[in-house]
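Below sits our specimen:

——
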Amino acid sequence: MSVIMVAAAIKRLRVTLILLLICVGFIALSPATARTGDFSSWLEDFRAEASTVGISANLLESAFADIKEPLPRVIELDHRQPETLQTSTEYLAARVTPGRVKLGKQMLKRYPTWLGRIERKYAVQRRFLVALWGIETHYGQHTGRFPVIQSLATLAYDGRRGNYFRRELIQVLRILDDGHISLPRMRGSWSGAMGQCQFMPSTFLQHAIDADGDGRIDLWGSIPDALASAANYLATERWRNDQTWGRPVNLPASFDSSHAGLDKRLSLAAWQDLGVRRLEGSGLPQRDLDASLVLPDGPNGPAYLIYDNFRVLMRWNRSVSFAVAVGTLADRISAR
């Protein structure tokens, strides 16, 4: 074989290999061909599991009848959560707005009877309940339009926190089986959080309350149920109604930022000795309380001295920015 013929053969082989690699790559990257069968198998396996733990066959049939594939938008949002993309300052500015403060003040005046009953029963100050309501869903105006079943199935199948969301999917089926809400109304956030205070299904089953006494728990349409459920959650997590959440503070120019961190506690008197002051410059409260200092945007950003109630808010949502936003909104809607 001549050199020219060998070269031509090698060239043809290289072209063939390149085309083969392109085809393989296309198949691997095509979700329509690679994932549909996998998701169908996953759903079949999940339905079998749900049946063994007591979920009714009729519900399983209706709940999954129209679910054929994962929701790409849910996966996208799972990787773009605002708590991780925004600074604390940006997060706060976007949520504690003049409009949200004004509406929060109106809500305090609109529901004094129910808020009073809930406050007395659960020992949680009403301003924090209204602030949570405001931060989570803008006082019930934006409870989410994602189909909760399909959202949770997507997240369980996607795998990043698959076991957690698989358990949540079982729990949401229990809520439907118990008759608290109809399947068409089972809508919420992309993550499966539901109702006016955005409970995950497991939180619903542990803490949701039928406050209005109609025989079912409706966190979507019943404001008493939603607010009482939020209060019950906070009370269970050892909320202290004789304390606030914390406060923004000023630090001295020479302050050693190594004192900051949720794992470090000092008495208010000790913070005072270190030069920490209220935002307007006055001294800290003269109470026998321990507090931690958080610097969510680093040493050059805002500083907050926080108490145990702040940690309770972080068990609701594991984000310093979220807890600061709730506490700040609570302060502003209750200010005269």
